[in-house]
Write a structure and sequence with these properties.
Shape: globular
Largest sheet: none
Number of strands: 0
Number of helices: 18
CATH superfamily: Hydantoin permease
Strand content: under 5%
CATH architecture: Orthogonal Bundle
Oligomer: single chain
Bound molecules: phenylalanine
Length: about 450
C-alpha cells in the first residue's frame, strides 16, 4: 500500500496481498451488521434472491471497471478521470466518491464504535445471562449514553487514522491473514449454535424461501444499494485500491475471489442471525440494532460464551477497520495527489473533518434523535443517501464510462495484462458494462421513483 508521500507509487506486494486488502475492504460491517438487518427489513428470501442477481450482473462488472480505471492511471479516482478524460466532467464521479467517503465514514465508524463497546461489555462480563428484552434495553440505553458512543467513535476513527499514517502494507497484510480466517471460523460456530436452537428452521425459511409477493420498488433499491455497499464499489475505493494492484495480477480473478468471499460471509452471517431471531423471540425487522441484540445471546449459549463473545466483537472491529481504512484512503489519496499535501497532514485533516460529521451522526441516535428529515435521523439519511443513491449512481457512471468512453485498447490491455493472459470473460464483461449493468441500474432508479412500472 501507499506508504510514501507522493512521487513513486507503492503497490500491493503480492497477488494474495491485493486480494486480502480488497477483500478486507469489502468484508466488514456491511456483511455482518448491515446485510442481516437490511434483509430482515426487506422481507428475507426475495431480497436475497435479487441481491444475488445484482451482485453477479452489476457488482462484478463495476468492480472490474474500477480496477481498470485505477490500475491504468495509477491515480486516485478524481485524478484518474482527469487523466482519462481531460477537460470532460467525468472527474465529478471522483469528487462524488470523496464526498461519499465522508458520509460513509461518519455512520460506519459509529457502528464500529458499537463493536468496541460490546467488546468491552464482554470483557466485563455484562453481556452474559441476558435475554432478548434486556439486551434490547441495554442497546438503546447505550445509544443514549452521554459520552460512551462518542468516545468509541473517536477511538475507532483515531485507530483508522493511525494505520493510514503509518503505512498499511506490513500491518494489514500480516494481521488480516491471521484474523479474518479466525472471524470466519467464529461465524461458523455461531451458525452451528444458532441452527441447533429450537425453532431455528423458521429463520432458514425466512432467509432462503423467497416470497416474491414481498418485492416492492423499495426492496429492489435496497438490494442494489446493499450490493454496492457490501462490495465497496461505486465511490472509487476500488479505483484507489486498483491503482495499487501490480501489472501482472489478473483483475478478473481478483474480482471473482473478492465477490465470492464477500457474498459467502454475508450469507453466513444471515444464517447465524435469522434462525436465532426466530428461535429466541425477536423481530427480523428490528433495524440497525439487530446484530447487537441477537448475537450476544447466541454467543453466550456456547460453552465459554464470554470468551467467544469478546473474540467475536474484537474480530468484528478488525474486519471493520480494514474497511474504514479503505474509505479514508479515498480522501487521503485525493488530498495527497491532487492538493499536494503530505500524507500525514492529509490524514489529520480528513480525520478531523469526518469526526465533526461523525459525532453529529452518533448524536442523531441519542440526544438528537428527535431531529428527523423525511422520517430519518442523520444516521439514517447518510446511510440511505450513500448506499442507495450515491454508490449506485457512481456505479452507473463508471460502467457507462468504461463501456462507452474508455478506449477499447486500454480495456483490453488491462483485462489481458497486455495480451499475456487470456480472459474468456472479456466479451461477457463488454456486454455487461455497455448494456446490461447501466440499463439495470437506471431501471432500478426509475422504478423506485415510481416512474417505471413492471407489473
Ligand atoms: N464494503 C464495506 C463493508 O461491507 C463497507 C464499505 C463501503 C467500504 C464502501 C468501502 C466503501 O463493510
Amino acid at each position: 500500500m501507499s506508504e510514501k508521500n507522493s512521487g513513486q507509487r507503492d503497490s500491493f506486494s503480492t497477488n494474495f496481498g491485493a486480494i486480502a486488502a480488497i477483500a478486507g475492504s469489502a468484508i466488514g460491517l456491511g456483511n455482518i451488521w448491515r446485510f442481516p438487518y437490511v434483509t430482515g427489513e426487506n422481507g428475507g428470501g426475495a431480497f436475497l434472491f435479487i441481491y444475488l442477481i445484482f451482485i453477479v450482473s452489476i457488482g462484478v462488472p463495476v468492480m472490474i471497471s474500477e480496477f481498470i480505471i485505477g490500475r491504468s492511471t495509477q491515480r486516485n479516482p478524481y485524478g484518474a478521470f482527469r487523466l482519462l478524460a481531460p477537460g470532460k466532467p467525468w472527474f465529478l464521479i471522483g469528487l462524488m466518491g470523496v464526498l461519499a467517503a465522508f458520509f460513509i465514514l461518519s455512520f460506519y465508524t459509529t457502528v464500529a464504535g458499537w463493536t468496541l463497546e460490546y467488546f468491552y461489555q464482554s470483557v466485563t462480563g455484562n453481556l452474559g445471562g441476558k435475554g432478548h428484552d434486556e439486551l434490547t434495553a441495554m442497546f438503546s440505553s447505550f445509544l443514549d449514553h452521554p459520552f460512551r458512543p462518542y468516545l468509541w467513535f473517536l477511538i475507532f476513527m483515531g485507530l483508522t487514522a493511525l494505520i493510514i499514517i503509518s503505512g498499511v502494507k506490513n500491518g494489514i497484510e500480516r494481521y488480516t491473514k491471521l484474523l479474518m480466517p479466525l472471524l470466519f471460523i467464529l461465524l461458523l460456530l455461531l451458525v452451528i449454535r444458532s441452527l441447533t436452537l429450537k425453532g431455528a428452521g423458521e429463520g432458514l425459511k425466512f432467509l432462503f424461501r423467497p416470497d416474491f409477493s414481498k418485492i416492492t420498488p423499495k426492496v429492489i433499491l435496497e438490494a442494489l444499494g446493499q450490493g454496492f455497499f457490501s462490495l465497496s464499489i461505486g465511490m472509487g475505493t476500488l479505483i484507489t485500491y486498483g491503482s495499487y494492484i501490480r501489472k501482472k495480477d489478473n483483475l478478473t480473478r481478483i474480482a471473482s475471489y473478492v465477490v465470492f468471499s464477500d457474498t459467502l460471509v454475508a450469507v453466513i452471517a444471515g444464517v447465524a442471525i435469522f434462525p436465532a431471531v426466530f428461535a429466541l423471540g425477536g423481530s427480523a425487522a428490528s433495524g440497525e440494532g439487530l446484530m447487537f441484540v441477537v448475537l450476544p445471546e447466541v454467543l453466550h449459549k456456547l460453552p465459554f460464551g464470554n470468551i467467544f463473545s469478546l473474540l467475536f466483537f474484537i474480530l468484528l472491529a478488525v474486519a471493520a477497520i480494514t474497511s474504514t481504512i479503505s474509505v479514508l484512503e479515498v480522501i487521503v489519496a485525493f488530498l495527497v495527489e491532487e492538493k499536494n499535501m503530505p500524507r500525514k497532514k492529509a490524514t489529520v485533516i480528513a480525520t478531523v473533518s469526518v469526526s465533526i460529521l461523525g459525532l453529529l451522526t452518533v448524536a442523531s441516535l441519542g440526544s438528537l434523535k428527535d431531529f428527523t428529515i423525511l422520517g430519518k435521523n442523520i444516521f439514517g439519511i447518510l446511510e440511505y443517501l450513500t448506499a442507495n443513491i450515491m454508490l449506485p449512481l457512481g456505479g452507473l457512471f463508471i460502467v457507462i464510462f468504461t463501456g462507452w468512453f474508455l478506449s477499447r485498447a486500454i480495456l483490453k490491455s488491462e483485462m489481458t495484462n497486455n495480451g499475456e493472459i487470456k480472459t474468456r470473460y472479456l466479451p461477457v464483461y463488454l456486454v455487461l458494462v455497455r448494456y446490461l449493468a447501466p440499463v439495470a441500474i437506471a431501471c432500478v432508479f426509475l422504478y423506485s421513483l415510481g416512474i417505471l412500472k413492471f407489473w
